[in-house]
Amino acid sequence: MKMQDDKYCPKIAEDIEITVLFQKKGGSTYSMGSKLCDRYIQLSSDNKKAVELAIQYMDGKTTIKEISENMINLHQIKLDVQKLCEWIGKAGLLENPPEDVVLEKQEMDYLSITIKKWKLDKLCNLFSFLGKKHALKLLVGSIILNVIGIVLALMNWREFVTLKNYELNDSLFFGIGWMLVVFIVSIGLHELGHAIVGYHFGLKPKELVFALYIGTPMFYVKIPGIYTLEPKKRIYVWSVGVYVNLVIASICLILMQLMTGDARNLLLIGVTTNLSLLMANLSPLLPLDGYFILSTLLQRPNLRKGSFSQFKNWVLGKENKFQGLYIVYFLVSVSFYGAVIYCEAKKVFNIISYGISHHYKVVDYMYEFRIVGVIISIILLKKIVDVIASRLNDKKNSKVYGVN
What we know:
By secondary structure, this protein is mostly helical. 58% of the residues lie in helices and 10% in strands. α5 packs across α7 (172-200), α6 (135-155) crosses α8 (231-256) and α8 crosses α10. The model is unreliable at 400-404 (pLDDT under 50).
């Protein structure tokens, strides 16, 4: 159904909730969203009351025209209900969104490809055991481990600045292979940490996702309702991942003192991999833990999206707030991405130049770009699997409903 004032009856998500996002002297910021949909929009103190009243009439039986009349007659508030429906429809908070409203995609939706999802329902007992019953013990024990680990890291810092760290049995190949194993396990425990602390604060982790973000493999856990928590608790949830990496690095550092040879190198790779993960996740320039922590501390939700959006409005001559923090974040982000693109382009150029001078064949170039090839193959395979699954599902539905 298209959005017509006298026909369309919007129905708001059944578990819609408005909570305080940030408390400010000049007016608090609120979050309106649904844990079932795991979608949220930001409200200001100026529009909160009107939106809160309007959504009470979005029961799937009252038209936009009738809602507008109720707002004027019963509450003396003139509100563009059609525009409100477009806004919350794009956010995915309507159970019956109109056909002409396109769901707004998040950054992870259009810059990543989901490879696999794992439901976390069966792990609720584990989350309860670790996040409720033994939370204090885990915290005290991990603090002791981290203190010892930091002291040992400072005493042995020279070992972390050489590629020798990644050699096993004098082989860089085996070292990198072990590093990948450590990377996957550490990321899994990192995300498990988010889930445990989220459960501790009353949230229910939904699923663990493996995806390719701009071609880079990554895991992340979906915890619906995180924006219903107060800022301090949200920071705890986002911080625990890097804290887990620090704990793993500390355990490896302690065990290193008891080992020699390749056994010691195995643990050393564990240390350097987890410290690298810690620093990468704290970066505020990627949609990782550090960014969400920074935006919460600065009380600027959607800082990334806002900075680029305001820059776009500024370029187009539209009304904008492209100043101060938005300018700083935008310039730093563009510089960072520019540097990454430049380095990657230079690497590709060097490989091609070297290949031309050494008369490379197609097979040689395929070997040089093997990582890119693997990523592209995974993406194509995922697309093929999705298409086949969709076709099989259509055939199944056709048989069920008797459609030829």
